[in-house]
Specification:
Length: 101
């Protein structure tokens, strides 16, 4: 569970980076520059795939935490990491379903 929570946190950080890259790229497109946000395209692609796939991984992780909570078992993960991943899930649900980006 510790390893999975860390992987989820890394994917959530990639989500934030992917959103920032999208905003930067859209700003460049408005100025007429279509080269992309950063010039290392494989790195940018990896960050975007990890970032946008993070909602699925994060949902699975929080579902497992809910099951542990219902069974009244304590997870072996630190509390700040649990809360950070849960807050990222709320942010991702808002971004994908209620945002106009």
């Amino acid at each position: 569970m510790k390893f999975f929570s860390r992987v989820v946190f890394i994917c959530n950080c990639c989500f934030i980076i992917a959103v920032v890259l999208r905003l930067v790229e859209n700003a460049h497109k408005k100025n007429g520059n279509f080269n992309g946000a950063i010039q290392i395209h494989p790195l940018e692609s990896t960050l975007v795939v990890l970032g946008y796939g993070a909602i699925y991984i994060n949902f699975i992780f929080n579902f497992f935490l809910l099951v542990l909570y219902i069974r009244k078992r304590n997870p072996t993960v630190t509390r700040w990491l649990l809360w950070a991943n849960f807050l990222f899930l709320i942010l991702q649900v808002y971004y994908f379903f209620f945002s106009n980006f």
